[in-house]
């Protein structure tokens, strides 16, 4: 099963020191890795490279962040934190 990570997608770490931590995908790094940031510990300037096997992918995507990443616009850490908080408050869409 291929995992399709898209920029701005909400993910949760499921292993490592950051187990349970919530991030947004910044970009893909090959087939098995993505760069993630949360605006707090992992800032936008220094995203963490994570193996996709160690992440839980949620269906929620930050459209504004995805657009900025696509257009190579600047994203602030405060914007990243606020967006993650807003996404966590939204209900998860479950496929039937």
From TrEMBL:
**From which residue to which does the signal peptide run?**
none
Q: Report the GO terms under cellular component.
A: ribonucleoprotein complex; ribosome
Q: According to the lineage, what is the superkingdom? A: Bacteria
Keywords, in A-Z order: Ribonucleoprotein, Ribosomal protein
Q: Which InterPro entries match?
A: Ribosomal_eL14_KOW, Translation_prot_SH3-like_sf
- For this entry, the protein name equals RNA-binding protein
């Amino acid at each position: 099963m291929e995992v399709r990570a898209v920029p701005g997608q909400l993910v949760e770490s499921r292993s490592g020191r950051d187990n349970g931590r919530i991030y947004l995908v910044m970009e893909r790094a090959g087939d098995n890795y993505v760069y993630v940031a949360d605006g707090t510990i992992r800032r936008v300037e220094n995203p963490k490279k994570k193996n996709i096997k160690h992440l839980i992918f949620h269906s929620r995507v930050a459209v504004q962040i995805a657009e900025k990443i696509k257009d190579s616009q600047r994203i602030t850490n405060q914007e990243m934190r606020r967006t993650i908080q807003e996404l966590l408050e939204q209900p998860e869409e479950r496929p039937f």
